[in-house]
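Task 17 of the worksheet. Students: predict the tertiary structure of the chain below and write it out as structure tokens. Keep your answer in the requested format; marks are given for formatting as well as content.
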Amino acid sequence: MIFDKDGNTTIVYQENISLLTFIKNLEEAYGKIKNDHIVVNLFSFKRLSSGDVLEFLEISRRHKKAKKSFVLVTDKLDYEDVPEEISLAPTLQEAMDIIEMEDIERDLEL
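Model answer:
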């Protein structure tokens, strides 16, 4: 697992491991990055299903409850295939845009 910190945002990249191992490792490392916005780059996975993305639902809920953004980045799924509770972006730039918009919403208490 590779962490790339940019200001108050941490981008998480995975190495060549299974999705479930990646999620387990993310859970274990969560304490180190819990105060940052988190972007999880899933481009290294050749195939993803909506069920795979649901594995991130609990950590996403926990992180958003703490008033921080949690965004998954992949171009292998459509927005309609995942629950609204999971933020999904097709590129890293769009993930950063989502974080910026969510920050504004939090500042305005929307």
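Marker's comment: The domain at 2-107 is CATH 3.30.750.24 (Transcription Regulator spoIIAA). Residues 92-107 form the longest helix (16 residues).
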